[in-house]
Amino acid sequence: MIWWRPKSEGEFQIVKEVHFWTTSKERERERERERERERKMKKIILLTVLALLLAMSLVAIGCPAPQVVPDEPAAVPLRAALERMRVATTTSLYDTGLWAHLEPMFEEEFGVELDILYAGTGIALEWGRRGDVHAIATHARAREEKFVAEGYGVERVVFAYNYFLIVGPADDPAGIKGLSPEEAFKRLMETGAGRFVSRGDDSGTHGKEKAIWREAGFDYEVVRDAEWYIEAGRGMGPTLVMASEEQAYTLADMGTFLAFKADLDLVPLVTEGDILLNVYSVIAICPERRPRTNIKMANNLIDFLTSPATQRLIGLYGVEEHGMALFTPAAGMDGK
């Protein structure tokens, strides 16, 4: 599979590279293979020389040299190039590994090469507006509905949900454990105890954080000037790692927190509140607005994500490794 990130309109770069290291045993096996190739080459040269000597001797005594008819090369069937499709996804769907889990199944079913571009919701929506992708999968309802209303997307189709959490150090210096999200943010602002790491990247999670500050009665521009407030400007996984290193609070989606939990020194502190609902939807790019979009394959992706079989896979994803699902299937919940 290939992971791409656009550099500019119509230009892309690979963002996931694989490096290989060889062990001493592997180097020894390679040297042995090289020696075997040399032995075979010497044998071929010797046989060739003997064949030439035999042919010359036959000519010398008047016998026609045997005709060597080369073997016909085996026909190699041409492989048709696979159709390609690009989808922009929020980092939480990427960091949890859900796309890596579903991608090969979609590619096999529809005979397509799926290119995944991951970023915050704001950037994903912009790629959709520019026509850099054929579909987007994000988690910011108001912005998605605006995207569709502006004519860039066909329809917002919900396929999964989970919840946001406020996580932080176990000693909880601000004393927010068990509070509502709004009360927890008020406590952080009023006490200034502990630090808070924000995504700060115009993502869906960043948008949710700003909504909580607003509901708590604070101007976000004032909040971000606080000395204890840190803007990571990074995806969900790296933001969690930074919060853990800083022993700070942060807002995270449940799926990414569970996926990274083993490597974090953070615990869930605020887990309940209507505002913490986190809904994921997929939107096909409108062909009337962007004629070059692959609307047929985008619709195939929507049908795939909302199919009973895939919904079951989404509902089971993470259970074996984490003891609970990272997402809840939600096909048909388009009012959320």
Task: Describe what you observe in this structure.
This protein is an alpha/beta fold. The chain has two domains: 2-15 and 82-162 and 278-329, D-Maltodextrin-Binding Protein, domain 2 (3-Layer(aba) Sandwich); 163-276, Periplasmic binding protein-like II (D-Maltodextrin-Binding Protein, domain 2). Helix content is 43%, strand content 21%. The chain is built from 13 helices and twelve strands. The chain has helices at 24-60, 91-95, 98-110, 121-130, 141-149, 181-191, 204-215, 220-223, 236-246, 254-260, 295-306, 308-316, 319-322, and strands at residues 2-8, 11-14, 83-90, 112-119, 135-138, 153-168, 196-198, 229-231, 250-253, 267-270, 277-285, 328-329.
Question: Characteristics of this structure?
Answer:
336 residues, alpha/beta, D-Maltodextrin-Binding Protein, domain 2, 2 domains, globular, disordered N terminus
Could you give a short description of this structure?
By secondary structure, the chain is of the alpha/beta class. The chain is built from 13 helices and 12 strands.
